[in-house]
Design goal:
Helices cover 78% and strands 0% of the residues. By secondary structure, it is mainly alpha-helical. The relative contact order is 0.09.
């Protein structure tokens, strides 16, 4: 601080009213900056909500039109009755056109919900603009429900028409794998990184759906099992990852850029270690649940002779590993900018992160029990 001729700070040499005036000015500027940041975050959240509302409305319209056309072709909305009708009844040419268009519209609606390319444009902005707990819910529960519907409709109700929808799923999977992995490494905001990463993970799950569509193959059931396993394991990973991102970002998601993770290994070693486990798992590192998930869907593709898409998935996994490496380097090997304050970790948040880490490592080392449980669920569901 600059000192005057008497050796006292300038602020102390000012008369009382002027000193209070300067302090008030500093406080006003600080409050103004804080208010500007809150308004900016509010605008981002409102923009994200509006985008999701508008695009979600369009996707729901496509989905509902698809249901209406399939009903017109089969006279049923029950999935079991639709499957039975398509398997045992000759569909008239006119109804066949309705059915094909209906299947296409259904796939468009479902592809939007699972954030598959080219219907993923809403994902980065919504993931970044929404509060982190909401983003975590959308990336886990929302995606799980969407893929459950995708599997139920495509592999069950439309099983006899796999030749019609399999090429579409193949293209969606390839585009999601490539676009999600490539664009993720160009981002600087952690939530946008994870948004594009989730698009790539959607491609891996679609890999299992594509494998399940080869109904004449004795290994088609492995496609469903691998997709369900991947979905479960990814849900745990994404909840753990976004919990840590939310803790680091603080109130209002003020620090969600990659630079804000710098020095996390020194400020909160346990939190940085947990984040590293989740990132290594998402990269598909052996002895983690992510390796079990990726190995399962790629193996299912190879067993059903979908060699090309399996190779693309492996290459996409290598590209995606660079993304996770960037985040780990920032957390462990770069110095923090500005404050060295350690993120506050509430008890239940720490408990959730710990449980997710334990689950990730246990499944990575001993995956058999989970794979057996998944196959049993599929058997009980009648597939």
């Amino acid at each position: 601080m600059r000192r005057g001729t008497a050796g006292q700070p300038d602020d102390e040499r000012l008369p009382g009213p002027r000193r209070r005036g300067r302090a008030g000015t500093v406080r006003a500027v600080s409050d103004g900056c804080d208010r500007w940041h809150r308004n900016r975050r509010r605008e981002e959240s409102q923009e994200a909500g509006l985008k999701y509302f508008i695009l979600g409305g369009f996707s729901s319209a496509f989905f509902l039109y698809g249901i209406a056309l399939i009903y017109g072709a089969t006279s049923h909305t029950n999935l079991g009755r639709i499957m039975e009708t398509l398997s045992t009844t000759q569909v008239f040419p006119r109804n066949d056109v309705l059915l094909l268009v209906g299947i296409g519209l259904l796939l468009v609606g479902l592809a939007f919900k699972v954030a598959a390319v080219p219907f993923q444009v809403w994902t980065p902005d919504v993931y970044q603009g929404a509060p982190t707990p909401v983003t975590s819910f959308m990336a886990s529960a929302g995606k799980t429900a969407a893929f459950a519907a995708f599997l139920r409709i495509s592999v069950t109700a439309l099983e006899s028409r796999v030749d019609d929808w399999r090429p579409v799923v193949w293209v969606l999977a390839v585009l999601s794998l490539v676009v999600g992995s490539v664009l993720a490494v160009t981002q600087t905001n952690v939530k946008r990184m994870l948004a594009y990463s989730s698009i790539s993970h959607a491609g891996f799950i679609l890999l299992g759906v594509e494998a399940a569509s080869h109904t004449t193959s004795p290994n088609a059931g492995d496609g469903i099992a691998s997709a369900m396993t991947y979905l479960l394991l990814y849900t745990v990973l994404v909840i753990g990852t976004f919990t840590i991102v939310g803790l680091v970002s603080g109130k209002g998601d003020a620090a969600s850029n990659l630079a804000d993770l710098r020095g996390l290994g020194r400020r909160r070693p346990a939190l940085a270690l947990a984040l590293t486990v989740f990132l290594l798992a998402q990269a598909g590192m052996p002895l983690t649940s992510g390796f079990v998930a990726k190995f399962g869907v790629i193996q299912a593709s190879i067993e059903t002779r979908s060699y090309a898409i399996a190779i693309i998935a492996m290459l996409a996994s290598v590209i995606g590993a660079y993304l996770y490496l960037r985040i780990m380097v920032s957390a462990w090997m770069e110095d923090a900018e500005g404050t060295d304050a350690a993120p506050r970790v509430p008890f239940f948040s720490g408990l959730a992160v710990t449980a997710a880490v334990v689950f990730t490592l246990v499944v990575g080392v001993v995956p058999g029990w989970l794979l057996d449980a998944t196959r049993q669920v599929i058997t009980l569901a009648g597939r």
